[in-house]
Amino acid sequence: MSVDLSGKVAVVTGSTSGIGLAMAANFARLGAQVVINGLGDEATINAAKNEVSAAGSKPAHYNGADMRDADAITSMINEAEEKFGSVDILVNNAGIQHTARIEDFPKNRWNDIIAINLSSAFHSIAAALPGMQIRNYGRIINVASVHGQVASVEKAAYVAAKHGIIGLSKVTALENATQEITCNSICPGWVRTPLVEVQIKARAEKEGIDTEEAAKRLLASKEPSLRFTTPQQLAEAAAFLCSDATSNMTGTTLTLDGGWTAQ
Questions:
Q1: The domain 9-189+229-253 belongs to what CATH superfamily?
Q2: Where are the domain boundaries for CATH 3.40.50.720 in the chain?
Q3: Which tens digit of pLDDT belongs to each residue from 224-252?
Q4: Catalytic residue among 27, 62, 122, 158
Q5: Is 42 exposed, middle or buried (0-12, 13-18, 19+ CB in 10 A)?
């Protein structure tokens, strides 16, 4: 399948590493002007900018908006509109994680996860939609999770946020269904990102095993394929959602989970 994003502007949140970085680089490779956003020290941010820039023909732009700050998110979208003329593709990928039983879950952790994993998507969509509606074009992709469809213990905030993301995607899709604006969710299973690496290391320490064995056990507990989905596979899925083939696909999910939710 050929996807040409020449002339399009893509904003990808949480794109200084992992899934978001792979998506940003792939959009650049397909011709888009890319705005990246995310955490990291100066070296990490510069490395991400360089990787995305090298993948395409246009220098990547970085905006360090705090995904807990609605005004900063709106400003990021407005800056992209003013600097590059439009926001045609919006990927809401920013996310954090914390695990604990509900009765032990720290209130500040709950608030941060809901803000970054769910509310930030609402604020960026709300800021981007007016321009998309005027131009009669937009592709909104929300990176959810299998945890937007099923639950796991000790992940109350993450599961709540990811279920919310899928619901937000459906409402966005319905409200813009008569225009060339789509909104869909991507639901990965286990992806070996820095976020998941923390869980692997925690399991290794808890069970007294090495990290590779911990990774195998993590997969075996949920994912029948016993393989991690890769960031590049998710980047290709995002590109598919920006293709002509999916211009009438909206309000739905693409699930790449090795059979997790088939059980």
A1: NAD(P)-binding Rossmann-like Domain (3.40.50.720)
A2: 9-189+229-253
A3: 999 999 999 999 999 999 999 999 999 99
A4: 158
A5: exposed
Quote the CA–CA distance of 229 and 45 in Å, as a whole number: 24
The encoded tokens of residue 192 equal: 């070996």
pTM over 0.70: yes
The alpha carbon torsion through 235, 237, 239, 242 (nearest 10 deg) reads -140
| Cα 141 to Cα 237: distance, rounded to the nearest angstrom | 10
Respond yes or no: is residue 62 known to be catalytic: no
Cβ atoms within 10 Å of 103's Cβ, excluding its own: 5
Strand partners, 36: 12, 62
Q: What is the residue-averaged pLDDT of the chain?
A: 97
Exposed / middle / buried, residue 9 (Cβ in 10 Å: 0-12, 13-18, 19+): buried
Instruction: Answer whether 199's CB lies under 8 Å from 99's CB.
Output: yes
Alpha helices in the chain (DSSP H): 18-29, 42-55, 70-84, 107-114, 120-135, 156-175, 194-207, 211-222, 231-240
| 139: amino acid identity, one letter | R
